[in-house]
Amino acid sequence: MQSIYESINETKVLKLDPANFSPEDVITRDVCVIGGGCSGAYNALRLQDFGKSVVVVEKRGKLGGHASTYTDSDTGGTIDVGVIIFAHLEEVKNLFHRFDIPLKTVPTTLGAPVYIDFATGQTIDLTPPDQAAVGAAFQRYSDQLSKYPKIQAGFDLDYPIPEDLLLPFGDFVKKYSLDALVMTVFAICQGYSSLLELSTLYVFKYFNAVLLNTLSRGFLTTERSNVGELYEKVAKKLADHVLLDSSVIAMNRSVASGPARLLLKTPSGCKLVLARKVVSTIPHLTKNLDGFDLSIDERSLFEQFVHSAFYAGVLRNTHLPAGAPIHAVGPGQPHGVPELPGVYAINPSSVSGLLQVYYGSPYELMEDRVKADILTSIQRIQDARGISATSAPEFVAFENHTPFNMMVSKDAIQSGFYDKLYKLQGQRHTFYNGASFHTQDSSLLWQFTEQILPKNFESLQ
């Protein structure tokens, strides 16, 4: 078996013959789902619901992707360190109800924030726009958003692309007098940086019609502050059809007749998967696709993706007030939006003595640098407030949610990038899903999955 792996790895021979494998190392399924995040896990679950056999390949030791829950050893309390909130969609309610996980509605804010310039640690006396101005700005934004209903369900774009969708969001704000809305968008679109420079299309994709509706009603979250519970139960339901700590090291999706063939590296050795269809849900950056037999079209498209970076953590011993959320602001910056990399917010948590921190960057950073910058930012606040700390702040949990907000250049959008991307669906035994093909939102990705599943089923007939 080792010699087969070495041969494939060295010569890139992709004709993977089942005859070269022991029967117990050959897995035959209707669908192989690559990636066990919110899209991959949901795809596998729904395919199984409709009687299709599946296998999920996940490189981490658990399902859920950006969903991660920390359990405090002292109290047993739980804190979600990734995905926390969900939209009021039937797909959301049905999924959590199915696994007996109660939901509750929470306010869109955690209370009146304290505004901090994290570059100096100084508290900023910021007066938010009055509610009438904010409401009017929301309405103007909603009026513009409503002109593009198709992009709420994917990247079904009209060509030529309307100019407004390609405007840097800062210019779009100026054009439609949305100044009163900017700090709200910045607070909610964490991970979308640099916000004012992004093509408005990507802001529309995240700060979308479903989200606007949810803002008016409050977000859904789990009563037990444990989104990880969902994916634990999904994993139990999928049982031995999930391969954790596993990755694709070679594949052949160009077989003229017969299934796609995927060679996997798993904790129990190499496995060969024979699948009628492949569903790829991972971030489609070429660095993530070393084992893929990418076509010229696939490679030329995936090479154009860029992304921002997003990090989240749980801290103890900060010696900061636990009551009000602390939000970043950039004095002297357009609309008060701070320059990034930097801290977005430090929020109270559901466990006494622990605070949650969120950090963003327009580009990927080493985790040690992010942690150091967060701790330095806390030190600045302590110094500015004259807090004499008896112990240093420390991380009890830290999650790297990079890559975040997969996107391409304005020129690529205008040149038909997403039209070409969507034409990959169904080619070479493969369907695509995940944030690369829609947006960075679990609720909307589950809805998106329901829309494209019929094509998957049709291809399996």
Describe the model.
This protein is α/β, with parallel strands linked by helices and 461 residues long. It has helices at residues 2-11, 38-49, 90-98, 131-145, 163-166, 169-175, 182-188, 200-206, 209-217, 228-238, 296-302, 367-385, 410-414, 417-422, 442-459; strands spanning 26-34, 54-57, 69-71, 78-80, 103-106, 114-117, 122-123, 219-222, 242-243, 247-252, 260-266, 269-280, 306-316, 326-328, 342-348, 354-361, 394-400, 404-407, 430-432. α2 links the parallel β1 (26-34) and β2 (54-57). The chain is globular and about 70 Å long. The chain starts with a helix and ends with a helix.
What does this entry show, briefly?
By secondary structure, the chain is of the alpha/beta class. It has helices spanning 2-11, 38-49, 90-98, 131-145, 163-166, 169-175, 182-188, 200-206, 209-217, 228-238, 296-302, 367-385, 410-414, 417-422, 442-459, and strands at 26-34, 54-57, 69-71, 78-80, 103-106, 114-117, 122-123, 219-222, 242-243, 247-252, 260-266, 269-280, 306-316, 326-328, 342-348, 354-361, 394-400, 404-407, 430-432.
